[in-house]
Structures are given as C-alpha cells and as structure tokens.
Design goal:
Helix content: 25-40%
Number of domains: 1
CATH topology: Metallo-beta-lactamase, Chain A
Shape: globular
Largest sheet: 7 strands, mixed
Bound molecules: zinc ion
Number of strands: 13
Structural class: alpha/beta
Radius of gyration: 19 Å
C-alpha cells in the first residue's frame, strides 16, 4: 500500500515535471502571442501595459501608440508619414539618431548598448547589422530592441544578419526575426540565429512587402521543427 502511494506521488511529480519542462505547445504559443499583431514587414502592434508599435510602415489605419520603436533610418522602417498616423501628444518615439533627426515630438535617440525605461516599459537597445552584405553596416549604429510586456521579454531584431551578439541576449520569450534574405538574413540563416537566441516562440518578419515571400517564413518554420516553436502570424 505504502509502495503504491509512493509510486503514485512519484508519478504525479514526474508528470508535472514533464509538463513543466515541455516546449511551448500550440495553446501556450497562442496565448503568448495573442497580444501581438502583425501589419506586414517589420510592423507590429503589441498591446499589454502599453500600446507599442515597431517600425510602422504602410499603415492602413490610424491609432495612438504609447511607444514607437524604430530600428533604423531606411524608409521602410523610419517612415515619418506612418509615424504621424499613430503619434499622439503623449507618444514616445525611440530611434537611432539618424532616424530621430527626421522626426518631431518626444523622440529618444538611442544606440546599441543603451538601456532605458519609457512609460514604465524596460527597453534594451541591441546591435543590428549585416555581416555578408553592406546595406546595414555596423558603423551606422542601427538597432534591435528587447522590451518586456506582460512579463514576456520580446526581441525585435531589426534589419540584421545572424550576428554573434544574438548569443548574449539573455532569456528571450518571443523573437521577431527577419527571414527574407537580400538585405537581411535568409530563412536558413534565421534558423541558425533562432537556435542561438533559443526563444520560447519565434515569429518571422520582413517578408511579403519589399522582399521575401511566405515561402521564406515556411522554410524558417520547417528548419526549426522540433527545436524552436514558430508562429507565422497572419497579416492584419
Ligand atoms: Zn534596412
């Protein structure tokens, strides 16, 4: 009898341990990403404590952002027309200095390595650059961001290749990674990047707009099967 009880307790402990250590399932991934809306290219609206937009481009409707994160000065990321569509009187824009100088309002200039808190949201500024092409050279000091929403650390990589710094980002819950190739990582390079970052969920971006297609997103998901959960968002 005692043996049976011990076995029972051990088994239930074991099953809990297995559940706890299991990779994020579809349901958990759905929950983790339900506040993340993709508007194409690198444009995300992330809701939670605050409304955060990243690299607004070709926005279909007006909105009011609390925070706008801009990764670099290229027109498809630092688009002042699109920024105006979501910029209210209290909106804080975070951008590298060459983009910031094109914008007005409350703009915070940042460079890789900076850490700041905006409207109660912790933001880390991380490097983003090319290693095998010249569109985004390291000396431009362009960036990606890690920010915490609803207790989840979200990383948006910006226009980047697979760079060594990706190994040192710390715990990442959700990684938003470019997959199109040409100006940024290919899907295959993004798979290697995701393995370095090891997020709970990876979301492909930077396709279907300027360069790249859904095939790049599928190849990215295929390459990470059984290793990192991938969620391909529907463009809203
Ligand atoms: Zn770019």
């Amino acid at each position: 009898m005692v043996n049976k009880i011990i076995a029972l307790v051990f088994c239930s402990f074991l099953s809990v341990a297995i559940i706890c250590s299991a990779p994020a399932g579809a349901e958990e991934v759905g929950k983790m990403t339900e506040n993340i809306h993709w508007f194409g290219h690198d444009t995300f609206k992330i809701t939670g404590e605050k409304v955060i937009f990243t690299d607004p481009f070709k926005l279909k409707k007006r909105d009011t952002a609390d925070i706008i994160l801009i990764t670099h000065e290229h027109y498809d990321h630092c688009s002042s027309d699109d920024i105006k569509k979501i910029q209210g009187t209290a909106t804080v824009i975070v951008a590298p200095s060459d983009c910031a100088s094109k914008l007005s309002g409350n703009v915070k200039k940042v460079k890789p390595g900076d850490k700041l808190t905006v409207n109660g949201i912790d933001i880390e500024v991380v490097p983003a650059y090319n290693t095998n092409k010249q569109f985004h050279t390291k000396d431009r000091n362009w960036v990606g961001y890690i920010f915490t929403v609803n207790g989840q650390r979200i990383y948006i990589a910006g226009d980047t290749d697979h760079i060594p710094e990706m190994k040192t980002l710390g715990k990442i819950d959700i990684a938003l990674l470019p997959v199109s190739g040409t100006y940024v990582m290919t899907a295959e390079e993004a798979v290697q990047a995701a393995l370095d970052i090891n997020p709970k969920v990876a979301i492909p971006m930077h396709y279907n707009s300027i360069v790249g297609t859904e095939k790049d997103a599928s190849r990215f998901a295929e390459g990470l099967k059984g290793k990192v959960e991938v969620k391909i968002l529907q463009e809203e």
